[in-house]
Specification:
The protein is an alpha/beta fold and 91 residues long. It is built from 2 helices and 4 strands; from the N terminus they run E-H-E-H-E-E. It has one domain: Alpha-Beta Barrel (TIM Barrel). Strands 1-2-3-4 form a 4-stranded mixed sheet. Helix 1 (29-46) packs parallel to helix 2.
């Protein structure tokens, strides 16, 4: 599938899942932000300018900082602890 044609192929959005499947709780906030900035921009570019709006956390773990950073980026849904996909909210 060509990610630049997500809409043409029935998908309405793309989502983040880390860079190298790193465990966010093992990283400090600066490292988490660096990875988020890199992957957010990389996926946005890859999808022809369409920014991701979702996230599934690597290892199904997040820190309080992770959730806040995702919300700052406009991520509106996620599966941060492997329960069910739903609206992102601060922990």
């Amino acid at each position: 599938m060509d990610p630049r044609k997500l809409g043409d192929q029935g998908a309405d959005s793309s989502g983040l899942h880390g860079y190298s499947h790193e465990n966010p709780t093992a990283l400090n906030p600066e490292q988490q932000r660096d990875i988020l900035e890199h992957t957010f921009q990389q996926l946005t570019d890859f999808c022809g300018g369409q920014a991701p709006v979702g996230s599934v956390a690597p290892w199904w773990e997040v820190s309080k900082e992770t959730t806040e950073m995702l919300m700052e980026k406009g991520i509106i849904y996620g599966e941060p602890v492997g329960l069910s996909v739903g609206p992102l909210r601060a922990m």
